[in-house]
Model the fold of this input.
Amino acid sequence: MKRDTDYLFAINKIKVLENRMLSKGILSRMIDAPDASDAYKMLQETPYGEFLNEYDSPYDFEAVISKHIEDVYRTVDEATGNASFTRFFRIREDYLNCKILLKARNFDGDNYHLSSMGTIPPETLSNCFKNEDFSELPEYLKVAVEESKELFSQTGIPGYIDFAMDRFMYEHLYEMAKADSFLKDYIEREVDLINIRSFIRIKLMDESVDFLKAVLLNHGKLDRDFFYNVFNEQLAGLPDRLKFTDYASVVEQGVKSWLESGSSMEMERLCDNYLLEYAMQGKFAAFGTKPIWGYILGKLNEVRLLRIVMVGKLNDIAKDLISERLRDVYV
Amino acid sequence: MDITLGQVFGLAAAAIAIAFPGIGSAIGVGLVGESASGLISEDPDKFGQSLLLQALPGTQGIYGLLTGFIIMSRIGLLGGNLVALTTWQGLLFLGAALPIAIVGWFSAIAQGRVAASGIGILAKRPQELAKALTYAAMVETYAVLALLGSVLLVFGIRI
Done:
């Protein structure tokens, strides 16, 4: 029987580790640094610092992030004695890696970077795709890859690889999450926000409702019928239709910005902040699984911010522009 | 020597007064200990402060033992001259032991949870330890009231 006191050791270990997460102050200092190299050196005083000796060039920041997340996953696995927390996130990486390989197989050749944070080593995945032999893949991934390939060969539209893989991934993640009310709620909200953005994109592209049907993901709080019903309405009216949902503020600001600027950047930022705010419940919980999920989600948000800063610095993007793209932090 | 049913009840009263708060305290202290171990695994300097929080849910076990000793003393078990209690007198002792047995049991677990949450405060804001201790100490009130109730009841029984 599961009790809310099952992970007290892990929760309080995590409370200390949260103190060491990157604060807005450190990220701001990195943005203000004269160049990427100086920004990178500032990580020395953070938990990322232990990998900086091994990877001393700022161009190696992805490797440092991978090493650090591996470390986070190992710590959580050991402290909880339950690998299912990190498996949830590793499986997501497997699907994303397969998506990259499926596209590379058709378009990009060998120019791709795979995440090493999945359950399957990148080399194994690459070999499977190179030899067109998927027998080494777990059944769920094999089915997703085969069906995505089939869909692409039928339609010839690369986007269908994304749609199909995303659908399989979220079906799988939902199945894993439904035993935990906090995580289930999180996935439902994530699916809703993805569906809302897909809906807006399809409306802006003037695509048909059939295309929308192919793109929408299952298991959101908002029913698929909701999107079909509002499909023929003006996009500017969408915030009104979602006024009494949890997404009212995100949609109101996001749609306004999207329609005015023609860019989805602000909407993406608002969605990420919304999900982070939900995850931050973990910071204030003392029992149950929330603090563990919250910490991992907070860490993944942290590396997303670090990527924004480092990519910005390496490409000499103006400080203001990098700051605009930043999301909230977990701590 | 013949044992009366009253004596059995009297002894049972002492036993539950000691056992139930003891179980509660063991659970409560265990919860805080598990939490504190997580904290200490990353920040060993906070051992002393965490120990204060861990000690709090242990008091119910002490109150239970105290009540048990008083009952044992009153029924003559400690001196070796067990009083020939009637069945009703035995039941009165049993009833008198219930406040500390039940309240001690549950309040120790509740206090353990509050103190375990306090370990989180210690991890984030060690300067606020006094507040965490105060929250946990509030639960103590009810254990003290139950102890007082049980002791007054035990002393009120005429034998």
